[in-house]
Amino acid sequence: MLQFIESIKVEDQKIFLAELHQQRIIETFSHFEKDCRIDVLEVFENLNHDEDGLYKFRLVYDLENNIKTQMLPYAISEIEDFELVTDDNLNYQFKYFDRKNFDHLKQKSQADEVIILQNGNVTDTCFSNLLFLKDKTWYTPETYLLNGVQRQHLLKQNQIKSTAISVDNILEFSHFQIINALNDFDENFIYPISKIKNLPSKILDIDDL
C-alpha cells in the first residue's frame, strides 16, 4: 500500500505552512482519485502539543486516510560536503514515505549529501530543495524532484527566483543553501559552491555506482 509523509515545522507550539502541507495532501489524494479526509490543523490540535522549541511534526498517511503521527525534537545540522550525482530515472512527484532510491544514492556517495542531476540539470538533495546565489539574488532550480512547501512559499513571497541551473552554469553561482519545511531561507547559513566535491568537469553517474 502506498504511504506518504509530511514533515511539518512546529516551533514554540506554532505550526508553519500548514495550508501548503494541506494542499499537497489534497493534491496527492486527487491524483489517485481518492477522497481526502485528513485535516492537518485538526490532527495537530488533537496532539495537544505544549512544548516550546523546534519540532518536526511527522504525519504519515495512506490513501485510505489512515494516519500515524510523531512529534520529534529537531535541530538543524551543518553538512560537511556535497556530491553531484546523476539519476535521470528518479521520480519523486509525490512525497512518498518509501525513500529507498534516495538511500541508495546516499550510500554510494562519498559525501555527506548528494545533489541530484537529471539530464544535466540540478534538482534537489535527498531531503531538500536548493537555492543558489548569484549577484546578490537567490535562485532555485526550475527543475526539481518535488516542489517543496518552503520553495513554493519563498517564490510566492518574491524572496527567490526560479531559473535554469545545470552543470553548464553552476559555477556562475557563488553560494548555495538547502531549504525545506524545517530549514527556512537563511542568508547566514549558506555553503560556498566549493562545498560540492565534484564540480564540473567530472560528474558521478548513478550507472557507475
Topology:
Blueprint (H helix, E strand, L loop, with lengths): L2 E9 L2 E2 L2 H14 L8 H7 L7 E9 L4 E7 L8 E5 L13 H9 L4 E6 L2 E5 L3 E6 L2 E5 L7 H8 L4 E3 L11 E5 L11 E2 L11 E2 L4
Parallel strand pairs: 5-6, 5-13, 9-10
Antiparallel strand pairs: 1-2, 1-3, 3-4, 6-7, 8-9, 8-11, 11-12
Task: Give an overview of the whole structure.
The protein is an alpha+beta fold. The chain has two domains: 3-73, D-amino Acid Aminotransferase, Chain A, domain 1 (2-Layer Sandwich); 82-208, Alpha-Beta Barrel (D-amino Acid Aminotransferase, Chain A, domain 2), CATH 3.20.10.10. 18% of the residues lie in helices and 32% in strands. It has helices spanning 18-31, 40-46, 100-108, 149-156; strands at 3-11, 14-15, 54-62, 67-73, 82-86, 113-118, 121-125, 129-134, 137-141, 161-163, 175-179, 191-192, 204-205. The strands form three sheets. Strands 10-9-8-11-12 form a five-stranded mixed sheet. It has a four-stranded antiparallel sheet with strand order 2-1-3-4. The protein is globular, with a radius of gyration of 18 Å. The model has no long low-confidence stretch (mean pLDDT 94).
CATH homolog superfamily of the largest domain: D-amino Acid Aminotransferase, subunit A, domain 2
Main β sheet profile: 5 strands, mixed
Provide mean pLDDT, rounded: 94
Strand order of the largest sheet: 10-9-8-11-12
SSE topology string: EEHHEEEHEEEEHEEEE
Q: How many beta-strand runs?
A: 13
Q: Do you know the CATH topology of the largest domain?
A: D-amino Acid Aminotransferase, Chain A, domain 2
> What coarse outline follows from CA principal-axis ratios?
globular
Oligomer classification: single chain
**What is the CA-based Rg, rounded?**
18 Å
Total DSSP helices: 4
Task: Point out poorly predicted stretches.
Answer: none
| Estimated share of beta-strand residues | 25-35%
Quickly name the level 1 CATH class of the largest domain: Alpha Beta
**Overall structural domain count:** 2
What gap, in angstroms, lies between the N and C termini? Answer: 29 Å
